[in-house]
UniProtKB/TrEMBL annotation:
Belongs to the FliR/MopE/SpaR family. One of its GO terms (biological process) is bacterial-type flagellum assembly. Keywords: Bacterial flagellum, Cell membrane, Cell projection, Cilium, Flagellum, Membrane, Transmembrane, Transmembrane helix. It is a multi-pass membrane protein. Role in flagellar biosynthesis. It is found in: Cell membrane; Bacterial flagellum basal body. This is Flagellar biosynthetic protein FliR. The chain crosses the membrane at residues 12-31, 37-55, 67-87, 93-112, 124-150, 170-200, 212-240. It comes from the Bacteria. Pfam families: Bac_export_1 (PF01311). GO terms for cellular component: bacterial-type flagellum basal body; plasma membrane.
Amino acid sequence: MLIEILPQTAFIFMLIFARIGTLFMVLPAFSERGVPVRVRLAIALTTSLMMYPLVSEQFAQVPSTLYGALAAMGKEIVVALLIGLSIKLVTSALQIAATTIAFQLGLSFAMGPDMSTGGQTVTLGTFMSVLAVTLIFVTDLHYVMIAAMYDSYELFPVNEMPPIGDIAQFASETVAGAFLVGTKIAAPFIVYGLLFYFGLGLLSRLMPQLQVFFIAMPANIGIGLLLFMILCTTLMTWYLGHLEEVLGRFIAS
């Protein structure tokens, strides 16, 4: 009897790990390159073990053929990728905002590593990404992500095909929302840039003998960084609120 139960138990656990592990590889904060792969793997295995007694009842019909087993495994991975990448799109809001802010402050030439893609981005974007990851864990939003993982089995049952159309619509709405939030975060600096360069133009007209551009760049950077320091809390609150709203759509009511 035990010999018959063990293979089925192991296969069900592998199906759970396929979805949970894939989600941990693509979700914000957990998927950052600064998080070691071994740490992500350990967290995914631990979470899968905790999920097993909660969702194993959905796996009543275990495929009896190799083709069926591979198809079930592939379906779980695809569902996790669709969910995780849709949520991951939220992080583009920070990159949009950081690039716009850096351009307004004259810091677009200062480049640094991108934690999400491993490429290059503005240094301000690197700082905001690190700050966002820190705040996700400080504000316990990672627990909301784990709750969304559990509720994904109710929204996307094991024995049903995922609604590709609904997920595609959600992804497009997430991209639109990311652009909206990114523009909202950068809006104070866009207004500041317009006022600063308008004042600079008036000053150059009133005092033609003054080399305004020699004082413009350091003044622009200094005032802009001071403004960023004052508004940083509010800006990150907007971002975290948007991320929580997106995650809430995967929480079964």
